[in-house]
């Protein structure tokens, strides 16, 4: 509890990590606020069903608070309000990210079974594409960490897209800043050698021991293959393509 986990992907799609954490925390009985900016509710629901979790049931029971970012953007841009009189969580399109933080704070304020709440964001890079400033995005994450990790003793899990060769300086600024503040980094990367049917990419697990102790970060690297209902991990050079 009280940890900030950064999911980072480069030259590949790291969304399988988001689906893992979503199903993991729901099965654990934690209350989850899912800020979904990339896909629709039906998309996440179909994947969750394959993993043995019903998002619709969790939503009805109050365990899952789901913000469908794509729909909220359209409602805000075209002047349609689902609940008249209440500010949209994506009000930052015309001002700042305070409304989105208030949405998170109010959603996780009431506990669920005495377990630490969880904030899950997929993905943070979309906020930059919608016009939010890098400083505003970093402030939003900082306040979420203080509220969820420190005050509520919960966890924050955030996905960001990254490309070291990209000319998007704002996105790289946000990614690098978040890396310095993370307790754990799961970095999914595409293979430098290109496509392989037996190896879909490699994941670098970085445990930030240097945050609280005078020790070097612990780094582990595995390769993985995404299957229909799970993901297989193995050491480099031990895939079916090699053996």
UniProtKB/TrEMBL annotation:
UniProt keyword annotations, A-Z: Cytoplasm, Nucleus, tRNA processing
Domain of life: Eukaryota
Location within or outside the cell: Cytoplasm; Nucleus
GO cellular component, one term: elongator holoenzyme complex
Pathway: tRNA modification; 5-methoxycarbonylmethyl-2-thiouridine-tRNA biosynthesis
BP terms from Gene Ontology: tRNA wobble uridine modification
Family: Belongs to the ELP6 family.
The name this protein goes by in its record: Elongator complex protein 6
Organism: Setophaga kirtlandii
